[in-house]
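= Paired protein data =
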Amino acid sequence: MRFVIVTGMSGSGKTAALKMLEDDDYFCVDNLPLELIGKFAELAGNPAQEYSKVAVGFDSRSMLRGHSVEDFFRTMKPYSYEILYLDCGDQELVRRYKATRRIHPLAGTGRIEAGIAKERKLLEPLRLRADYVIDTSDMLTRQLQQEIGHIFLENPGEGNLLLSILSFGFKFGIPSDADLVFDVRFLPNPFYVEELKHKTGNDKDVQAYVCQNGEADTFLQKLTDLLEYLIPKYELEGKRQLTIAVGCTGGKHRSVTMANRLNEYFETNGKYPVVLLHRDITR
């Protein structure tokens, strides 16, 4: 049986993640009291039951009932489970709460920012122990679904490390969930070519411009050599997800080009499931 705990920041997409798992025949339960989570895990793990995939939502609302993250770990100690932690930047969380006009569960009558800060501190031990962390700050629903699919739906139980290749612009900040960050601002910049300025690294003429002098090929060769060495090391340490971020100034030309090429390499290689995201391509 695969038993998944779905947790993380309120407003980060936990409910959406549970619905995606439910669509793939996971038996999903949200907001169970801590006293019942252990009982549920025991019931679901009974060989007489027919549950093969189970997901349970656990969040800061349990803290309002007088429990702590340490209580959760003690309760779940006898059971085998995985933790999926959904994270999101503070500014985006504030925006989402304002858009939905909902009250943050830990804010009470205070400010949303205060509730977010309190929740982040409370849940930090869960984030540190998580098997998978997904930052949904700049994700569309379909992108979250793709990530969930690669982790839980397409290759359940195989234990392959998931590679997330992410292009971004340094002017918008380094992605908070990046494990490895590579700067490609040394490559030729199409931004200063009028006919290429408003295109992206998904366009062939932009790719040709970025790769014109051979530096991109040399960089890609050295980068893939490094990653071929590093990835098995991360696997040995039990890491299940590795986010490789490739950045340029604006996140539209050079980083997109090189992220695409890196994605092509690993898709052709076939050793690891891979997800490609372009965070800032539309900015």
